[in-house]
Amino acid sequence: MEKQRIKEGIERYLKVKHGIKLKDAKDYEIFNAVSLTVLEEIIDNWNTTTETYSKGRMAYYLSAEYLMGRALGNNLMNLGVYDEVKDVLSELNIDLNRIEEIEEDAGLGNGGLGRLAACFVESAATLDMPLVGYGIRYSNGLFKQNIENGFQTECEDTWLKYGEAWSIRKDNDIQIINYSDMTVKAVPYDVPIIGYGTKNINTLRLWQCEALREFDFNLFNNQQYIEAVSGRNKAEDISRVLYPNDTAEAGKILRLRQQYFFSSASMKDIIKKHKAKFGSDFSEFAKYNVAQLNDTHPTISILEFIRILIDEEHVEFSSALAIAKEFFGYTNHTILAEALEKWDIRLIDRLFPRILQIAYKVDEALVNELRQRSYDEGAIWNFKIIANDQMRMANLAIYVGRAVNGVAALHTEILKKTELNHWYHLYPNKFQNKTNGITPRRWLRLCNAELSELITDLLGSEDWVKNLELLKGLEKYKNDDKVLERLMSIKHEKKVQLAEYIKQEEGIIIDPNSFFDIQIKRLHEYKRQLLNALYILDLYYRIKENPDLDIPKTTFIFGAKAFPGYRRAKGIVKFINEIARFIDNDSEVSKKIKVVFVHNYKVSYAQKLFPGSDLSKQISTAGKEASGTGNMKFMLNATPTFGTYDGANIEIVQESGEHNNYIFGLRVEDIEKIKHSYDPKWYYRENPSIKRVVDTLINGTLDDGRTGYFEDLYNALLEERDQYYVLADFELFKKSQEQVFEDYKDKKKWAQKCFANLYSSGIFSSDRTIKQYADEIWYIKPAPIK
Ligand code: 26Q
Fold first, then answer.
1. Is the pLDDT score of 317 beyond 80?
2. Which of 119, 245, 334, 348 could link 110 by a cystine bridge, Cβ 3.0 to 4.6 Å?
């Protein structure tokens, strides 16, 4: 893109959008103008891409969440115009970096599952794959987190407050959605998904819910103002908020409405496009279309699809079911059987009775099949889609799905061997593994330009950005002192930048020369932030006992949001913050260790944390973390993993070598063996260090402000039998961390571990994952535009 064009574009959009001249523009207005200038530039290719894809077989990714983060920097980089735009702005005395920073994150997701969807659509675009993402345009994404006096507080996220430059409302494709008690509009907003180094522009279509009518004119004339807009508010409520990740709080009627809303809109949209090509002939529908369910959240799509075919297109039930069986694939992201979504059938009956009728018919077809295969009635019960007055969404997805996949090797094995074992016996060929991945564009090229430059220097080209396996080519430098020194000086630079950012955001000063030990992820008991916290407290006491304790100066960094109704998670947030304060108040210990809990952890914060890390903490109870993807982001930024034998940690260590990482703790088999006899009180009695730190929860050492949080944590460990094996893994954790500190002394050896992680990370590109989905489930091929 020519600089002159960029400049003219910015001035033009400042004029027509904001009615001002450059000299008067605020940062967000410049952000809008730059974004629109780029958007204008890509529209033709975007339309051509859509047209090209529509001629062949297409995949649809159905996901309730897309955790996109910021768009501007990534889009400029992927289009290859970053430097030009930077130059143009700097000639105008504007710092592009500052403009990037004012963009609100699109936080339309909770964590891993939503971020995975975002990486997937980006990879598909980069690979020219004919894939469209469907989701919900929440007006408020994941809540904003504040920390007040050590407690988490929440407030609403308002990412749309300045308008949103990166999407286009498509009124021509509005769909009408029917519930038994209301009818609403689904309005699509299309977001361009810009791949790296390609002309193709893919589409993320996010549905917003609106009322059919703005307000009731008669009520308004009657001066009943509130009543006049109540219909509108009710409709807008449907796409208003993203539900926090909470499986206990099932039965929320609005969540079910939401799921049906975007499922129905997406099915209608896909069918409309099919009819534009083939009329009412559905015989070849599954030849041209395939849909992937991102967990069970969009699974009601299956029933809605069959409903439309039967009721509106006059297809026979058996044919409709047969088409659905070729059309849908299902990805599972959780191991826990109790975490699988179930809906009360009375709720379904109340909102969309016809959907329940269809579900009964699908269930009947399933039961018939099982009887034909001579399953007895008792066995059949486990498979049923409707049982105990509940609709079991995973059973529906597995029965109808053409494929069922887990998200890491261990996870898929556990599904086959335990949770879904009965299904695996019935349909062994449906089960597949697709180990997760991350996009190297955002998670290395964009967030760590310095390391990217080193890689490009060594490999002689930027091809690795699109073909991450090329990183293997770095291995030959593993004993090259110059290269290792450059790597570590880049790491230091990124730590300095992170320290500056933390100072700006948190008002906390940390020492970039200290060791940065980082745990960042949603707060959950199974992820065991508590184990890390107890370890740090133990370290505090050991330094008190021996001020000369031989460890490197260390900064422990946490970032995590706790689900607002998850009391124990909030207790852990407070506990970590109290430990931070406790240590800060000790002039002796605080010379050696420091704890920082960064507030409002989100994608854009993550982009600063991963590059500035020395250690990646991935310490979930074995068997609980389906995959993890943050672990991959650390690895790609040349940081060793400290973790349990769980999820993708296993594959990470397989690639880069156990000796370059720290694997500790009970494994799935170990837990299986001890689970009935496990007695956390024994550890508490026998291990004085454990007793010392666990007692701080109840002896007044640390203060939870009379909330009862800490006593509750104490009870979770000792009275409720420590379900996540925190105490069982304590000593093993400690030993491993000791090894980390020991190894860190040898600077060269440490640099080699970091480097090995970098050159072994190629397989964790989401490009690889998407190619596997494309080849093994979707059967789609790249369709580059001319
Ligand atoms: C369910 C019911 C009601 C309301 C919300 C929910 C809900 C929402 C989000 C349930 C689960 C989620 C998100 C789950 C998630 O992020 N899982 C993670 O998926 C990643 C990508 O596969 C894995 O790497 C992680 O291991 C897994 O925890």
1. yes
2. 245
Q: What is the 114 CA–ligand 1 centroid distance (Å)?
A: 8
Structure-block tokens of residue 781: 């091929």
- CA distances 705 to 149, 448, 581, 711, 717, Å, are 9, 41, 14, 12, 20
Confidence of residue 217 (pLDDT cuts 50, 70, 90): confident
Confirm whether pTM is higher than 0.90: yes
**pLDDT tens digits, one per residue of 252-292:** 899 999 999 999 999 999 999 999 999 999 999 999 999 99
Which residue has a Cα nearest atom 9 of ligand 1? 245
Task: Round to whole Å and give the CA distance between 483 and 751.
Answer: 10
Encode 623-645: b = buried (16+ Cβ within 10 Å), e = exposed.
bbbbbbbbbbbbbbbbbbbbbbb
C-alpha–C-alpha distance, residues 628 and 520, integer Å = 11
Centre of ligand 1 from the C-alpha of residue 266, in Å: 21
Sign of torsion over alpha carbons 631, 193, 111, 611: positive
Rounded CA gap, 610 and 616, in Å?
A: 9
pLDDT of residue 244: 85
Name the region of 274 (left: φ>0; alpha: ψ -120 to 50; beta: rest): alpha
CB neighbours of residue 99 within 10 Å:
22
Q: Which residue has the higher pLDDT, 697 or 228?
A: 697
> Model confidence over 391-401: pLDDT tens digits?
999 999 999 99
- What was the pLDDT predicted at 224? 87
pLDDT digits (tens, 9 = 90+) for 603-623: 999 999 999 999 999 999 999
What CA–CA distances, in Å, run from 92 to 4, 10, 761?
Answer: 12, 11, 40
Which of 61, 108, 113 to mutate for ligand 1's pocket (most ligand atoms within 8 Å of CB)? Answer: 113
What structural domains does the chain harbor?
A: 54-69+105-436+771-778 (3.40.50.2000), 447-672+732-764 (3.40.50.2000)
Catalytic residue numbers read 333, 521-522, 527, 629, 633
Residue 652 pLDDT greater than 70, yes or no: yes
Taking 3-state DSSP, the helix, strand and coil percentages for the chain, each rounded to the nearest 5, stand at 55, 15, 30
Residue 647, ligand 1, Cβ within 6 A: yes
Using CA atoms, how far apart are residues 619 and 597, in angstroms rounded to an integer?
17
243 lines ligand 1 (CB under 6 A): yes
Q: CA 53, CA 173: separation in Å to the nearest integer?
A: 17
Q: Which of 65, 245, 563 to mutate to test the pocket of ligand 1 (most atoms within 8 A of CB)?
A: 245
Q: For 168-193, what is the mean pLDDT?
A: 98
